[in-house]
Design brief:
This protein is mostly beta strands. It folds into two domains: 42-138, Immunoglobulin-like (Sandwich); 142-435, L,D-transpeptidase catalytic domain-like (Beta Barrel). Helix content is 14%, strand content 35%. It has helices spanning 2-29, 40-44, 48-52, 175-180, 349-358, 387-391, and strands at 55-58, 73-76, 81-88, 96-98, 104-107, 116-124, 130-138, 144-146, 148-150, 157-158, 164-168, 182-186, 190-196, 201-206, 215-220, 226-228, 231-233, 237-243, 247-252, 257-262, 265-271, 284-287, 290-292, 295-299, 308-312, 315-317, 324-327, 345-347, 364-368, 399-403, 406-410. The strands form eight sheets. A six-stranded antiparallel β-sheet has the order 9-11-14-13-30-31. Strands 21-20-19-29-22 form a five-stranded mixed β-sheet, covered by helices on one side.
Length: 435
């Protein structure tokens, strides 16, 4: 019994071998190839020289003084592709963009100074096999750094003319690099531009006044940006603030009246008295800077004619040299008739109080028909310039389109036509020139 069973088993085994041989022969002669699944573990264990043939990470592994302003680049070589890049660091999170053809990945912003990074890049070789490359490196510790401050306060409310104002602790020579590191996110679409006022200040201003009720978030990705030779930013800067209702004042020094527009509509028409012939209130579109009730105003030289030292109520300042909209009960008889002030805009007490209660920093104030031209930087004078003049002050010469998804630099020629009207939507060209 055992013998016959063993013989049967041998015959079955021989038949199976013959069948397998037949299948093998058929496979060898078929015109349809047989797919083969590679062992992923064997592929991932490919030697470093094989991986480096298809993926290159810059900075290279072991770099101790990488240039943070250059960021991170991953390139696919020899027909390979990049599929994913992750960056581990204890510093600011790193994001990047993969090219549409999968050949290049680059970090979005500069890297932090004096920081360690580990980059892991995955992709495929020329035949589609998975490959993984890593690079651990450290960015340089700069000998010099610059600090940046923003004027706007967190969650504060400003007027529709308010610029975003940044000041730097060191002169900036690579202004374009700094400008490109600045991002603006707005709850409503906004077009604007950056303007360099010297080498230690840059301001953002919309092409037209901000839409009322806009929430603005600023992100300065400045850590690692080389603002001047060997001088790097050492921190990022973020701030969020709001644009309130639209409150716009227009004063005529010749008609002796001021118009007050609220949310685009004329709400008040008040008599005023502006600067006398020897102290005219200067022309220009200014912005409210601050306010106080009362404010002590001192002018002239003590003991000489014209000297004054007074507490003034309901005072809203619009020039650094000391021009205000304020209550002036002593000149009520002249308001609407003649100009008798020392340069301020005198208002009846009740009207001055009403304006004071409306005003926040950044509300536009335009003085017209004065024999005196306004002085640049005597107050926040960004709206002295029309859009083209302001755009010329950008280091990149690019406009900024901002919205809920952040901001991008665009060619000015690609922008839609400007349909804003003066005075409620934007300022007039050459508004600071003398009448």
């Amino acid at each position: 019994m055992y013998g016959s069973q063993t013989g049967r088993s041998r015959r079955l085994a021989a038949a199976a071998l013959a069948a397998a041989a037949g299948l093998l022969a058929a496979a060898c002669t078929s015109t349809t190839p047989v797919a083969t699944q590679l062992n992923p573990q064997a592929v991932s264990a490919a030697p470093a020289q094989t991986v480096s043939k298809y993926l290159k990470i810059t900075p290279a592994p072991g770099t101790e003084d990488a240039d943070p302003s250059a960021g991170i680049t991953v390139r696919a070589l020899n027909g390979g592709r990049v599929t994913k890049v992750t960056v581990r660091t204890s510093g600011d999170a790193v994001t990047g963009t993969l090219s549409s053809n999968g050949t290049t990945w680059h970090s979005t912003w500069a890297l932090d100074v004096a920081q360690a990074y580990t980059v892991t890049a995955t992709g495929t070789g020329s035949r589609g096999h998975p490959v993984t490359a890593t690079s651990t490196f450290r960015t340089l510790t700069p000998a010099q750094t610059f600090q940046t401050e923003i004027y706007e306060g967190q969650d504060a409310t400003y007027g529709v003319g308010m610029p975003i104002m940044l000041t730097f602790s060191q002169p900036i020579t690579d202004r374009a690099a700094v400008e490109r590191s600045l991002e603006i996110t707005t709850s409503k679409p906004v077009i604007g531009a950056w303007y360099w006022d010297g080498d230690e200040q840059v301001d953002f201003r919309p092409r037209d006044y901000w839409p009322a009720g806009t929430t603005v978030s600023f992100d300065g990705h400045l850590n690692g940006v080389e603002g001047a030779s060997g001088v790097f930013g050492a921190h990022d800067l973020t701030q969020t603030f709001d644009i309130g209702q639209s409150v716009i004042a227009v004063a005529s020094t010749s008609a002796h009246y001021t118009l007050i527009y609220v949310d685009g509509k004329l709400k008040y028409d008040w008599p005023i008295s502006t600067g006398r012939e020897t102290l005219p209130t200067p022309d220009g579109t200014y912005l409210t800077v601050n306010k106080g009730n009362p404010v002590r105003m001192i002018g002239g030289k003590k003991g000489t004619p014209g000297y004054y030292n007074e507490l003034v109520n309901w005072a809203v300042r619009f020039t650094f040299s000391g021009d205000y909209y304020h209550s002036a009960p002593w000149s009520v008889v002249d308001q609407g008739v003649s100009n008798v002030s020392h340069g301020c805009v005198n208002l009846p007490p009740a009207d001055a109080q009403a304006y004071y209660q409306l005003a926040v920093p950044g509300d536009p104030i335009t003085i017209t028909n004065s024999p005196k031209a306004g002085d640049w930087d005597d107050g926040w004078t960004e709206w002295f310039y029309d859009w083209n003049q302001y755009l010329a002050g950008s280091a990149t010469h690019m406009a900024v389109e901002a919205g809920p998804g952040g901001s991008t630099f665009v060619s000015p020629s690609s922008l839609p036509a400007d349909t804003a009207s003066v005075p409620t939507g934007t300022s007039a060209a050459d508004n600071y020139l003398a009448a």
